[in-house]
Design goal:
The longest helix has 18 residues. The strands form 3 sheets. The protein has a 7-stranded mixed β-sheet, sandwiched between helices. It has a 5-stranded parallel β-sheet with strand order 12-11-10-13-14, with helices on both faces. The protein has a two-stranded antiparallel ribbon with strand order 4-5. Helix 2 crosses helix 14. Helices cover about 30% and strands about 15% of the residues. Strand 4 and strand 5 form a beta hairpin. By secondary structure, the chain is α/β, with parallel strands linked by helices.
Length: about 400
């Protein structure tokens, strides 16, 4: 009965066997920072030991391609998917992190146990080796996607990064299924896709919006960095600043970012990760180009103001292009301020260092800054933004 649908379900979905693949587009303009900003530069294959074999979850599983945008965007999609998995009461299969050269287990960068405090999760590689042979054998693997038309194709492995994501996990789909029940309709989704007929829901993309919902921001507390990444970032902090406090700056000024910001008009209520500044329902204003691509004068003026108010003599700059070291040093002459830019191999190192700063000044539109903001909110650390003044 795996592929048989009731009359009610058949009205909502179309089963497509052996579909013709086409190139998948990804129009998301948001980028991360650094030369390895795409997803990191680690070229190794994960060799972390697997967890003990768990019992199969009778409530089923959900796995999805974490494939939209770069790290900041993916993190927002992941947290939204975590929230959704809890709502539909299925175990979340933790997706791998794709890099330019390899696929990394989720627990290479983040710990699993804190996530388990919120909901049931299992690392994708462990699930596929330990449980999938019984609950999701190759001949019964169905890829699923939402389409507005009943005859839509999913093309689960068409183009990158989708093809690389599933291939790295060793997943091929025997069938593909398009449906017209939106994942946000929890009751209807669960009724349409029963746990008996569909023990594993495998989705083309994240069952979550971008930008993420404000109500899901507190879930950031369950994304705890791995010891390896934390220790590496802490070594940099100790070497650069000893035990002195420092201000963290996130500067987005690359050509791709300039292009993304050029489309902003006065009618924009939200743009990408702007809710981190503007809040829910634009209660604090509307998007401006100076929020997205602040002028040099805006950056220098606000930085000097924060340096003087916090009496801080160290600045750490994370950027996708120009760290403005010379400009900052000139504007801060007489204040005995040291300005540094690390250019780490992994942008995740920048994220941790910015999160630990005494004060952080970010970009209101960037999901990279938004990740830092959520971490800092949990720790009770202050955040300011270029081009935006809190009302």
């Amino acid at each position: 009965m795996w592929l048989q649908c009731s009359a009610r379900i058949a009205a909502l979905i179309v089963l497509v066997a052996n579909p013709t693949h086409s190139t998948e587009s990804n129009a998301e303009p948001e980028n991360d920072i650094g030369t390895c900003a795409l997803d990191g530069c680690d070229s190794t294959t994960s060799k972390l030991p697997m967890s003990p074999v768990p019992r199969a979850d009778s409530n089923g599983y959900v796995i999805f391609c974490l494939c939209m945008g770069r790290f900041g965007n993916k993190a927002e999609h992941f947290l939204g998917a975590l929230s959704w998995a809890k709502k539909i009461n299925r175990t979340l299969v933790l997706p791998s992190w794709g890099t330019r050269t390899s696929s990394l287990r989720f627990d290479e960068w983040f710990k699993v146990s804190p996530l388990q405090e919120y909901h049931r999760v299992i690392v994708a590689e462990d699930f596929l080796q330990q449980l999938a042979p019984q609950v999701w054998p190759p001949e019964k693997r169905t890829g699923m996607c939402f389409t507005f038309k009943p005859d839509g194709n999913c093309n689960m492995k068409a183009g990158q990064p989708s093809s690389g994501f599933w291939t790295a996990l060793g997943v091929n789909f025997a069938h593909e299924l398009s449906y017209q029940v939106h994942w946000d309709n929890i009751k209807q989704f669960n009724e349409t896709f029963s746990r008996i007929e569909y023990p594993v829901i495998a989705l083309k993309g994240a069952p979550a919006p971008y930008p993420m919902r404000v109500d899901d921001w507190p879930l950031q507390r369950y994304m705890v960095w791995s010891d390896r990444l934390m220790e590496e970032a802490q070594r940099h902090i100790t070497r650069l600043f000893k035990k002195e406090k420092y201000i963290g700056l996130h500067l987005r000024n690359g050509a791709d970012w300039e292009k993304a910001c050029s489309s902003i008009t006065p009618q924009y209520e939200h743009y990408m990760a702007s809710p981190q500044c503007l809040g829910k329902f634009t209660k604090k204003g509307t998007v401006t180009k100076n929020m997205c691509l602040p002028s040099a004068e805006e950056i220098l003026t606000l930085t000097r103001k924060i340096v003087k108010s916090t009496q801080t003599t160290n600045i750490y700059v994370a950027t996708d292009n120009n760290p403005m070291i010379a400009e900052l040093e000139q504007r801060l002459q007489g204040l005995k301020v040291k300005v540094v830019n690390l250019k780490p191999d992994l942008p995740q190192t920048d994220l941790i260092i910015l999160s630990q700063a005494h004060h952080f000044i970010g970009n209101c539109i960037s999901s990279f800054s938004a990740f830092v903001k959520r971490e800092r909110d949990i720790a009770g650390r202050p955040t300011s933004y270029f081009g935006f003044t809190k009302s």
